[in-house]
């Protein structure tokens, strides 16, 4: 029994010793690996002469001795496009700029996995001098540390990624605003290296430009991105490589219809109410006309407050000016109607007075007896009742259907029946025609306006 117990204890001690030795070896291996990686990075990035030769020079591009231009692969991951300004013709976005190139001087074989370098070691390696040609302002995110990633692969490939927020110029064509589609670009090029030293290409391993699917725009719908290699620009200092990506944006029309088009349309319709108001209601028609004109003018100023000062005519300008013309024409219509009404009243008085003078010369004394409409006993055509005589002024005239009796000193009492043919009221006719003409013209304008700008018929002609 004692022998068996001793054998069991020996086995347990042996197993424990093996475990301790294994742990020690693993620990020693990790420390050795850590020491090897640290030494490896220091040796790779060291610019001090080693063995009398220069090990690495971050001020010289890779492959300069062979004369072959180095190829830089670029990839973008857009996380947010947070501002698009028509007034300044610019847009702002945040993205990850990833660059990949091969530097044969940084190859290693002692370790098979990639090495992630510290962001402080960025100044120790050579990096392409890329810049944004249409940049207005920008910044590198440095909270909590500079947002940079530097990863080195055994074959000498370097992956350099940084998080940037930039504001870029965007040439917008606002001729069809707010029914327009815009194309904003990002142009990346080399500042100092010509095409003989450096070539920039979009990365083909993944999508050249990746867009965060959760991106939303308050005014636009994102329809796609088109990356391509732009033509080199020839200047006095040489030809430089560049790449470009186009962001396709389609403006949302719904908010503009609700807040601009519909209110202005209702104001135009409101101006037509004056065609149904009585001609004698001068204050009502004048107030309505002035109110609608001021409303349209205020709307037009508000629409263009956030727009750039451009010489071209926008679609919204055509709409607002047309609405102003219709409203102003409605106001002028009442001026025409008022003039016609006053002119017709004067002409009626003049004709009636002239007719009365032809019947009764001025040098004769005359009495005019007029039958009132309240009498039940009609007058016969030969005589007038004495109790119905009424003396009136010589300037008075009989109504169109009145019965008048004229008494002259040298002639017996004479009965005259005057009937004036009613004339057409030109002022009322203009109002009636306007009730049909103005809505019809506005409907024709809408039939031409909306297809022209929404479906862009001009491009199909």
From TrEMBL:
What keywords are assigned to this protein? Cell membrane, Ion channel, Ion transport, Membrane, Signal, Transmembrane, Transmembrane helix, Transport
Q: Where are the transmembrane segments?
A: 6-26, 256-277, 318-341, 427-452
Neurotransmitter-gated ion-channel ligand-binding domain sequence ranges: 54-252
Kindly give the InterPro entries that the UniProt entry links to this protein. Answer: GABAA/Glycine_rcpt, Neur_chan_lig-bd, Neur_chan_lig-bd_sf, Neur_channel, Neuro-gated_channel_TM_sf, Neuro_actylchol_rec, Neurotrans-gated_channel_TM, Neurotransmitter_ion_chnl_CS
Q: What is its main location?
A: membrane
Q: Name one GO molecular function term.
A: extracellular ligand-gated monoatomic ion channel activity
What sequence ranges are listed for the domain Neurotransmitter-gated ion-channel transmembrane? 260-450
Q: Name one Pfam family in it.
A: Neur_chan_memb
Location of the protein in the cell: Cell membrane; Membrane
Question: Which GO cellular component terms, listed alphabetically, does the Swiss-Prot or TrEMBL entry include?
Answer: plasma membrane
Q: Where is the signal peptide?
A: none
Q: How does it sit in the membrane?
A: Multi-pass membrane protein
Spell out the PANTHER family in the cross-references. Answer: NEUROTRANSMITTER GATED ION CHANNEL
Q: Which NCBIfam families match?
A: LIC
As for family, the record states: Belongs to the ligand-gated ion channel (TC 1.A.9) family.
Entry protein name:
Uncharacterized protein
What organism does the UniProt record list as the source? Paralvinella palmiformis
